[in-house]
Write a structure and sequence with these properties.
- There is one protein chain.
- This protein has helices spanning about 15-25, 40-50, 70-85, 100-110, 130-140, 160-175, 185; strands at about 1-10, 30, 55, 90-95, 115, 145-150, 180.
- It is an alpha/beta fold.
- Strand 4, helix 4 (about 100-110) and strand 5 form a beta-alpha-beta unit.
- Helix 1 packs parallel to helix 6, helix 3 (about 70-85) crosses helix 4 and helix 5 packs parallel to helix 6 (about 160-175).
- The model has no long low-confidence stretch (mean pLDDT about 95).
Length: about 190
């Protein structure tokens, strides 16, 4: 089993990602930024409807590593509140940039959040190209991997290569026996 994860959305590309996941019978976890939810509520509901799941990725996507407990709580809670408006609840939290400090860890525990990181980071956000990203994933993914991809590319406003990358990676890994599941399924969270 492998968990595909998508950070920094939702975006205009999220529906395309969902379509390709559905076409291969794959599920994934989308870590969303709270300030991007407005206008994308239907996409997030479809994410759940089609068997994938939503995680919290903060409200403003700021590094929370060495920030106050108050800021960490506010960033997590604001996104949870936006999700609650559309009847989505999540215990999953991925800190922006993977940065965790004592205060963030403490707040995550207080809010009953499970911090989710990754073991495969192909840096798809950096513009390295389809071939480099796909090769990195294919060479490094293994049973139990959590792959960190991005639904949004800061430099191009959207990760246009993501659907092409998924169209190569998913069938190749499925062919050798991997199943794509949500983080909660992979880690046996109830």
């Amino acid at each position: 089993k492998i968990a595909l994860t998508f950070d920094d959305g939702p975006s205009d590309n999220t529906s395309n990602i969902l379509k390709i996941l559905r076409s291969y019978g794959a599920r994934a976890t989308f870590f969303v930024v709270g300030r991007k939810i407005n206008g994308k509520e239907k996409i997030l509901k479809n994410t759940i409807k089609f068997g994938s799941e939503i995680g919290n990725h903060s409200y403003n996507h700021v590094s929370l590593s060495f920030k106050s407990k108050e800021l960490a709580r506010e960033e997590i809670q604001q996104t949870d509140d936006k999700l609650k408006e559309i009847k989505i609840k999540t215990k999953l939290f991925r800190p922006p940039y993977g940065g965790i400090g004592y205060n963030l860890h403490s707040v995550a525990r207080e809010l009953d959040k499970r911090i989710i990181l990754w073991d495969v980071d192909p840096k798809d956000w950096s513009g390295v190209g389809v071939k480099t990203v796909t090769q990195y994933i294919l060479n490094n993914a293994r049973n139990g991997s959590i792959i960190d991809l991005h639904d949004f590319d800061r430099s191009a406003s959207q990760n246009h290569n993501l659907v092409r990358i998924l169209g190569i990676v998913i069938p190749r890994l499925q062919k050798i026996g991997y199943k794509f599941v949500t983080v909660s399924e992979l880690l046996n969270f109830k």
